[in-house]
Amino acid sequence: MSEVFVAERDVVIPGEKLADGMDFLPGENTYRDNSGIYSRVLGIVGLSGRVLKITPLAGPYVPRIGDRIIAKVFDITMSGWRVDTNTAYSALLNVRDATTRFIKKEEDLTQIIAIGEYVVVNITNVTSQNLIDVSMRGPDLCKVEGGRIMSINSMKVPRVIGKAGSMIQLLKEKTGCDITVGQNGLIWVRGTAEGEYKAERAIKFIEAKSHLDGLTERVQALLN
């Protein structure tokens, strides 16, 4: 007889037994050992029909093609800018992917983007050796100007965005800020000083309480 030992949104630890029996299937971040299904990570339980999966509460960001990230320029080369992706691996922003205007060979690239500045970019390529290419050509991709950059655990990004963007919309409405969330855990907040403070406080609250039910209502109460 099959039995499940956890409920939706329970927090579990690595090695914890989630279910027993062949009626259940191991999903993301779980594994089967004989008839039992166990968690691989510290995270939150998700039940989808017969499939058990775990959403990690911690862990490094893994770059993926198509992700929008916020990155900091730390070096300038002949071909473009090297940027910190908030992972162990840096990325290259090629000159041709940074701007649509013509750039002369001898042009000073620091006049376009200087070392220490941030950019909102899309990841366009990730090789098996973790060589990463990014681009600033596309909607809402740009150099960061004004506002503040904050950092959260990248695993909490989905909670900051919310289902169909519901949480990020709430944050924008209640704080009056423009908020750009990078999949790598960096967030660009820009608005009034008071609005930026409220937004940062709420985002940190979401990061800390991401495992709780009724999070949207809790954030709404915090911002009212």
Highlighted features:
224 residues; alpha+beta; OB fold (Dihydrolipoamide Acetyltransferase, E2P); Ribosomal Protein S8, Chain: A, domain 1; 20% helix; 34% strand
Description:
The chain is flat. Strand 5 and strand 6 form a beta hairpin. The chain has three domains: 54 residues, RNA polymerase II/Efflux pump adaptor protein, barrel-sandwich hybrid domain (OB fold (Dihydrolipoamide Acetyltransferase, E2P)); 76 residues, OB fold (Dihydrolipoamide Acetyltransferase, E2P) (Beta Barrel), CATH 2.40.50; 76 residues, Ribosomal Protein S8, Chain: A, domain 1 (2-Layer Sandwich). 20% of the residues lie in helices and 34% in strands. The strands form four sheets. The chain has a five-stranded mixed β-barrel. With 224 residues, the chain is α+β, with helices and mostly antiparallel strands. The N and C termini lie far apart (49 Å).
